[in-house]
Amino acid sequence: KVENNNLDVEVTGSELETEIKGTEEESTRASDSNILDVSSDYPREKHISIQRHLDDLEKLADLKEDEKKPCPLCPEEKFKACYSHKLHRHLQNLHWKVSVEFEGRYRMCICHLPCRPIKPNLVGDQTFSKMGAHYHCIICSATITRRTDMIGHINRHVNKGETESRFITAPAPKTSRQVLKESATDVQVLPNYSTPQKSDSYFNPKMKLNRQLIFCALAVLAEERKPIECLDAFGATGIMGLQWAKHLRSSVKVTINDCNENSVTMIQENCHLNKMKVKLNTKEDNNDDAVGDGEENIDTIEVTKMDANVIMHLRSFDFIHLDPFGTSVNYLDSAFRNVRNLGIVSLTSTDISSLYAKAQHVALRHYGCNIVRTEYYKELAARIVIAAVTRAAARCNKGIEVLLAVALEHFVLVVVRVLRGPSPADDSAKKIRYLIHCQWCEERIFQKEGNMVEENPYQQLPCDCHGSMPGKTAVVLGPLWSGALFNTGFIRRMLFEAVQYGLDEAQPLLKTLVCEAECTTLKHFSTHGPCDENKQEECGVYIKTPNTSAESHLVHGKRKSEEVIRNAAKRQKAENSAEHPAFYYNIHRHSIKGMNMPKLNKFLCYLSEAGYRVSRTHFDPMGVRTNAPLAQFKTILMKYSTPTYTGGQAEGPLHLAEDIQAGDQVQAAADGKVEDAEFLEDDPSGVTATMFTKDYPTHCAAD
To answer: Tell me: the pLDDT tens digits for 537-548?
Structure first.
């Protein structure tokens, strides 16, 4: 019996140890489950560490000047009772400054009270209880130790839409989503909609100009043929597709796609909000879900949940827009596989670090292009993207015509028209060339066509830096698109659509693009629609006569459109001679030290008077697009620059030239200095020359 009793005692001791360990594990599991447990519905009392203001926390401590008070968030063994001035500093520095903010209304301060289940630490024969600092979640009352973990925990609640607090004293907000309005279209977004890594439905208000440009391009295509099937491959909130359907109505059949289930749900809710019908189509099932009722619901938007490559492989579209987060090269092959003839593909690239030569190895990896940072880096980025688009289209036996290329601070937008057939594909592929860039003077020129190796490729550059500078002075960039970046007729029609639909932000940019496409400083814009046949011919490959019936529109896959395409291609080749010059010069990069440059608009007039084509560019606010060589560019800039010191000196040629043009020749000739000889050559009227012959000998003027 004694042995049995001893045995029983030993067994019960081991069982007790296992029970203690089990209770510890259950307690830790329960604490871990509390972090993610938001299913309880009953309201709890708000913890004292969650306050609105620091004054509320001080009221909780009941500060008095003549009495010592303990900290309400710390045990006495950690922080002893003290006077008010010391307790105020303790509450402010230890608890309030390291708090976690929630929606700008509440602060979850750090708590040192024994709220969490404590694990005893055994050191020898002594047991130490570790009082860990922690935070109390305002939503699910979980206790979390680290501040970064607490911030991530709150963000996960917000991403799931769980922002209603379960505390009695914390009133819940009316709604967890915001409703934004853009171009008469309402969309609801999550609170962190501007952070793509933390939100399923990303919405960037800074891309409003980008959305307006794409809408204008689609509106121009909708005028050519109706109805057209258009795809927004990356819907997110669905703002772009909703704008298409709301303004163009029966002219377009809109499909909004996204591979994220939460985004698809939000797109359907936004269609609800804008009184649109929804046709839901996913991989698993194809069912029609009509949302909304009434006479206002006359438009239907198809919402799909697929990978963008899959839907573009399965279906054909007239208009495709690609706007992924980052580069779009992974979706180009699928986009050009089934796009219809004379359709439009637009893509927005936001991988600015690689395209703007900040991460050159990424540009080589994604686009197969070698680049360096230059003064014309934005146009270089646009030509890199177009070269990738051209190669992807050529793999599908399709050529492209570039309609629009815009590179701004946040994105690079490229809009191209698709031309089916191996001949257009070959013609487009021939326009991909390498660029020779001089690193000393930043002169640049595209390499000549042909496969023969040149003995001295530096001879192609207009500059002579290689002969005067030691070592290698130039680099080869590319391959790049060497053709035109703009289609004047198409951009003019986009401007007309922007005026018609009241897109104020896109109108100034489109006007600049028209001048840049024509390479002129003259701004003649018509707000009337393209009503005559000649204006339609500027559009490139598609011609539509006014007031035609529906039978005269282009029919996909019909042979009757081939003659129209051939005639338009001939017209397009004839217009290639009037293409705008490639690249531009920054007037500040080539300024002369110690000289004041002329105003940019006046400098454009001087270049134009010298017989060169010139215009401003949207790529650079101080850039000048011209066909003048860099040496002549610098010569004219130096000629009309004035010295920075003006005390006791005569004014430079810029001011005197203005005086001569204004009729003040007498004052200009009275100075009698060496600069007057230059004005004798430039004066068209001969009045100044006559005055010089009266007052001075002929050899003095020649000197």
So the answer is: 333 333 343 343
At 200, the pLDDT band (50, 70, 90 cuts) reads low
Q: What is the dihedral of CA 376, 377, 382, 385, to 10 degrees?
A: 140
**Beta carbons within 10 angstroms of residue 192's beta carbon:** 14
Q: Mapping DSSP to helix (H, G, I), strand (E, B) and coil, where does residue 304 land?
A: strand
pLDDT tens-digit map of 602-622:
999 999 999 999 999 999 999
Closest to 604 in 3D by CA, of 592, 616, 596, 595: 616
Domain ranges of the chain: 50-119+131-159, 179-282+298-448+467-488, 489-518, 585-643
* CA atoms of 515 and 525, how far apart (whole Å): 10
What is the rounded average pLDDT of the residues 313-340?
A: 95
Lowest-pLDDT range of 153-162, 227-236, 359-368, 661-670? 661-670
Q: Name the 3-class secondary structure at 685.
A: coil
Tokens representing 408 are 């701004």
Q: Quickly tell me which residue has 């002219």 as its tokens.
A: 251
Give the tens place of pLDDT for each residue, 366-390.
999 999 999 999 999 999 999 999 9
d(CA 374, CA 476): 13
Q: Are 569 and 541 in contact (CB under 8 A)?
A: yes
Helix pair angle (239-248, 208-224), 10° resolution:
40
Topology of 179-282+298-448+467-488 in CATH? Rossmann fold (3.40.50)
Rounded distance, CA 86 to CA 68, Å? 10
Say which DSSP state 92 is in: I
Could you give the CA distance from residue 478 to residue 380 in angstroms, rounded to a whole number? 9
Query: Assign residue 653 a region: left if phi > 0, alpha if psi is -120 to 50, beta otherwise?
Result: alpha
Residue 178, classed as helix, strand or coil, is strand
CATH top class, domain 585-643: alpha beta
- Tokens representing 447 are 């390499």
